[in-house]
Amino acid sequence: MSTDFKPTASPSNFADLKLSSETLNVLKELSYHQPTPIQKQSIPPLLAGRDVVGEARTGSGKTLAFTLPILEKIRLSGRQLQALVLCPTRELSTQVAREIRKLGRRLPGLQVAMLSGGQPARSQLPSLENGVHIVVGTPGRVLDHMRRGSLNVRTLRCIVLDEADRMLDMGFEDQMDEIFAAIPTNRQTVFFSATFPPTIAAMSKARQQNPVRIRVADEAQVEAAPQVKQELVEIAPGRKWQALQKILRVEQPQSAIVFCNQKITAAEIAENLRSDGLSADALHGDLMQADRDRVLAKFRNQSIRILVATDVAARGIDVADLDLVVNFDLPLKPETYVHRIGRTGRAGKSGRAISLVQSQEMHKVEAIEGLTGQRVARIKLDQSEAKAVVVPAAQASMVTLYISGGRKTKMRPGDILGALTGESGGLSGNSVGKIEIHDFFSYVAVDKSVAEMALESLRQGTIKGRKFMVEVVR
Ligand code: ADP
Ligand code: MG
Predict the structure, then answer these.
(1) Among 33-42, 171-180, 384-393, where is mean pLDDT lowest?
(2) 334 lines ligand 1 (CB under 6 A)
(3) Residue 318 alpha carbon to ligand 1 centre in Å
(4) pLDDT of res. 220
(5) The whole model's pTM is what?
(6) Average pLDDT, stretch 202-219?
(7) Cα four-point dihedral sign 441, 98, 103, 172
(8) How far is the CA of 61 from the centre of ligand 1 (A)?
(9) Coil, strand, or helix at residue 444?
(10) DSSP 28-67
(11) Number of the ligand 1 atom closest to the C-alpha atom of 58
C-alpha cells in the first residue's frame, strides 16, 4: 500500500485545499471553518483522483471528506450516475444523503437518490427514472435496483464505502462483490472506516489501485474521543435507576443518550423517565421503522431530550450536539464502549460519559482502559447536591409538528419556514427549530410556547398555496 501522496504544504483552511469558490462559499454558509485532520489529508488525493483508504474515528468528519471531492467533480448536465456511496444502515444512508444535499445546495439541479430498505424498491423508481448524479444507499437495495435495471452504473466514476469496517462486519461482502463486478474498472475506489481490521486491508488489496492510506493520529481510533470526560459510578444493581435519575437531574443535559444492553430495559427506563416528568423516548430493535424515524427526528430537533437506546438500534445514528452519554449497563465488549462514548464530544465540542458499574464488573472497566489507554475517573454521586437544590426535570423546549408534504411534493425547508414566519404565520424565526424534509412528509420543531399558534396557523393557512395535514407528533 502506498503512502507516497504528500500534499506540498500542510493546509490549515479549506481554501488551501484547492476547492472551488462555490464550495468555499457553501462551507462558509454552513459554518465549517476549518478542515478536520482526515479532511485535510484525504481531500487532496481524492481531488487528484487517487484511490484512498481513510481511517479516522467516529465523528472526525469523514462524510465531508469524501463528499466535497465528489461534488467538485460532478458533471450536472446529462444526469448520469457518477458516484455511489454505500453505507451499512438506512440511518447512515439518510444522514450521508442529507449531508451531500446540504453541501451540494449551490449545484443547480443536483440529483441525489437514497436507496435503502424501509420502503418498497418500487417506490424508489420514480426518483431514478429521470436520472441521478449520486446514489447513496445500502448494498442490498442498491444491488436490487441494479438487477432490476432501474440503476445504471455504467457511467459510475467513483464508489465510496462509508464505514467499510462495519459493512464487512454486517456481512455485506457478497453483495459488495456483485456490485464491484458490475461497475466500471477505471473508477475511483474510496474506503472510509473508523478501524482498519485485516478484512479492510484485504478488500483494499483486491479492489483498489495503488491506494493512498490515510490514518489520522495513530492513537485516535482507540483514544475514543479525547474531549470526552469519562467517569464511572460504582453502584449496587438495585440502585442503578436512582443513580440515573440523580445524574439526569443534576446534569440537566440538553441532549443525552442512555445506553442499555436489553430492549426491555430501554423500554422500561424510557417509560419511567417519562412518568418522572422527563422528556424521554426509547429506541430499540422492536420498533417499526416509522417509529424509529419519528423518535430520531424528535431527538435531533430537541423535542426529546433523552434517548434510551440499545446498541443495535443506535447503530449509525448521528446527533451533533450530544452532551451526555450514560451507560446504564456496561457493554459486553470494550469496543462498544468506545463506540458509545464517541457519540458525544463531536467536532471539538466537549462531552461527558458516565457509566454505572457494579463492583464485579470492574474487570470490564480495566479492559476498556486497556483499549483506550485512558483512565475512567471514579466519582461518587453527591448526596447533598440533589437534596439541596430541587432541580426541575429536564423538559424539552421544542415540539415537533408533522406536515403531510415532503420532498416528493417539492416541499423545501424555506417553504415551511416561510409559512410559519410570514404574515399569516406570525412566528419569529428563532422560535422555529430544525426542519426535516422526508420523501412524503416533513417534521418541523417549534418552540413549545408557540406550538399551539404554529399548529393553528399551519392548519388555517397554506404552504406554497396548498393545504396540508398538520399534527403534533407525540
Ligand atoms: P464521521 O463520519 O467521521 O463519524 P461525520 O462526517 O458524521 O463524522 O461528522 C461528525 C460531525 O462533525 C458532523 O456533525 C459534521 O457536521 C461535523 N463536521 C464535519 N466536518 C467539520 C468541520 N470541518 N468543522 C466543523 N464540524 C464538522
Ligand atoms: Mg461517518
Answers:
(1) 384-393
(2) no
(3) 10
(4) 39
(5) 0.54
(6) 85
(7) negative
(8) 3
(9) strand
(10) HHTT--S--HHHHHHHHHHHTT--EEEE--TTS-HHHHHH
(11) 4
Q: How many CA atoms lie within 13 A of 213 on its CB side?
A: 13
Q: List the strands of the sheet with 442-447, edge to edge.
A: 432-437, 442-447, 398-403, 470-472
Distances in Å between the Cα of 133 and the Cα atoms of 19, 71, 100 are 20, 10, 11
Instruction: Please name the amino acid found at residue 318.
Output: D
Q: Edge-to-edge, what's the strand order for the sheet holding 377-379?
A: 280-283, 306-309, 256-259, 324-327, 351-357, 228-234, 377-379
Place of cell 444512508: 93
Query: Any idea what the Cα angle at residue 453 is, between residues 448 and 454, rounded to 5°?
Result: 75
Residue nearest to atom 10 of ligand 1 (CA): 59
User: What DSSP state is assigned to residue 389?
Assistant: S
| 63 within ligand 1 shell (Cβ under 6 A) | yes
User: What tens digit of pLDDT does each residue of 217-245 get?
Assistant: 644 344 445 578 899 999 988 899 999 99
Instruction: Identify the helix (H) or strand (E) that includes residue 364.
Output: helix 362-372
Distance 26 CA to ligand 1 centre (A): 15
pLDDT tens track for 423-441? 777 888 889 999 999 888 9
Q: What is the Cα–Cα distance from 237 to 358, expressed in whole angstroms?
A: 6
- Ligand with minimal distance to 36 CA: 1
Tell me the residue type at 213. R
Separation of CA 60 and ligand 1 centre (Å) = 6
**Which residue CA neighbors atom 21 of ligand 1 most closely?**
61
Please tell me if the CB atom of residue 91 comes closer than 6 angstroms to any atom of ligand 1.
no
Separation CA 258–CA 269 (nearest Å): 9
